[in-house]
Amino acid sequence: MTTNPELELKPLIQQFRETRNRTLQLVKNLEKDDFVVQTAYFMSPPKWHIGHVSWIYEAIISKMDKDYKFYSKEFSEYLNSYYQQFGVPHDKGLRGIVSRPTVDEVFAYFNTINQRVEKFINSHELTDEENRLITIGFHHECQHQELMVYDFQHLLAESYNPVIQNKIKSTNKVEKKSVLIKGGLYTMGYNGTEYCYDIELPEHKVYLNDYKIDVFPVTNGQYLEFVESGGYDTYKYWLSDGWEKVKKNKWKSPMYWEKIDDTWQIRDFAGIHKINPNEPVKHVSYYEADAYCKWAKKRLPTEAEWEKAACWNDTTQQKSIFPWGNEPPTENNCNLLESYQWGCTEIGTYPDGVSPSGCQQMVGDVWEWTSSEYTGYPGFVTGFDEYNDKWFSNQKVLRGGSFGTPSMSIRGSYRNFFRLDERWLFSGFRCAENN
Predict the structure, then answer these.
(1) How many domains, the chain?
(2) From CA 287, how far away is CA 246, in angstroms rounded?
(3) 101 prior amide bond cis, ω within 30
(4) Does the pLDDT at position 343 exceed 90?
(5) Which residues on neighbouring strands pair with residue 184, listed in sequence order?
(6) Are residues 147 and 192 in the same domain?
(7) Domain check: are 288 and 392 in the same one?
(8) N or C: which end of the chain has fewer CB within 10 A?
(9) Are residues 363 and 302 in the same domain?
């Protein structure tokens, strides 16, 4: 009788292989020329992503094995993103002008690091801390898988040929409304036993007033009303810095929107097509989300308000990991990367993902801006120097994940963060208001 060698693998190696295979699947159908192009300073060439998600494992192992020797000084200098502890990082805006290491050399490096990581995992019984550090590498790679999807849209749009593509789900019309969330003390942060980032901890109490929050994210149709009413031409809706960005960058609509024959259209993985009024608006900056809310006489929720609406059950007085409970995401309750739809679904598509408060699509489709500044929770302790804590300045928190987020890396407590003017990510929002 033969045994399946996969079944005998350590769980950590199984997870490692699944993560690495998903990275390879994302780039499998790219042409070699695609790997080296950088179309804007805010995105990175696919070649760099492939190398960087491998290099980070070297950085992690070097923290556990003081005798570890990095693969190549040349590779480390190019693939280091922003870790000063490992040398002077390469200029992000110039990643696309570097021809060496070549694409073939980067893939050879990718495979070599696979061997080194598995050898390290099998070399001894890992301590809890070593398990945690290796697992950080998996989740870091998941983050870059999502970043690659952002970058593929900017680089290739409809020319990107995914290995798996499912038909985008649609639904019947639903009622756009808000729900009342009771205030009081709420214990915020991750309350599970599996992996989470240091910035999701520690749990701590916050006080909230009663508030209302929209059941669904703001749709293209709703946002179009703001655009057509002169929202981008009226300074009174905008924060001062936001208005400067509007004028300087000549913003007239969300990123990737363009007006063709008097009809607003978008260019994304489906090509150039009319915007679907029932899909969540995406590719809006914090400034745009905030301006819309002011125009609509509402506001953005704080991240505590968002999390309570997503995960708190007022009847049982319990908090869950996800809006629907503690079970991992499936294609029945949200639209994440493994849904392979390569776009947003219409609001109301996932009634099985409803939160106890009645909010829908709080996980998947689009990241949702909150009004909260990105900083550490009271009692924050870093879990990896220069990974999260060095960004505690001039960033806003987003919650909920997008259609580009791998399912293993999202939770109701997950805190994403971006600068206020960034909008190439799959970012949207939902409105809140005082009761």
Answers:
(1) 2
(2) 9
(3) yes
(4) yes
(5) 208
(6) no
(7) yes
(8) N
(9) yes
What rounded mean pLDDT belongs to the chain?
Answer: 95
**Is the pLDDT confidence value at 9 over 50?**
yes
Instruction: Tell me, yes or no, whether 192 and 140 share the same domain.
Output: no
Domain residue limits at 347: 178-219+280-434
Other C-beta atoms within 10 Å of 106: how many? 24
| Host H or E run for residue 368 | strand 367-373
CATH number at residue 61: 1.20.120.450
Instruction: Give the model's pLDDT for residue 336.
Output: 98
- How far is CA 382 from each of CA 57, 63, 134, 210, 386, rounded to the nearest angstrom? 18, 15, 16, 33, 9
Between the CA of residue 403 and those of 283, 345, 365, 386, what are the distances in Å? 13, 9, 5, 27
- Which residue in 410, 365, 407 sits closest to 216, CA to CA? 365
- Report the CATH number at residue 306: 3.90.1580.10
Question: What are 179-194's pLDDT values in tens digits?
Answer: 999 999 999 999 999 9
Does 168 fall in a domain? no
Which of 431, 406, 397, 8 has the alpha carbon at shortest distance from 188? Answer: 397
Q: Is residue 393 a contact partner of residue 376, using CB atoms and an 8 Å limit?
A: no
Cα 188 to Cα 306, 307, 432, distances in angstroms: 10, 7, 18
Q: Which residue, of 159, 190, 209, is where some domain finishes?
A: 159
180: number of Cβ within 10 Å: 12
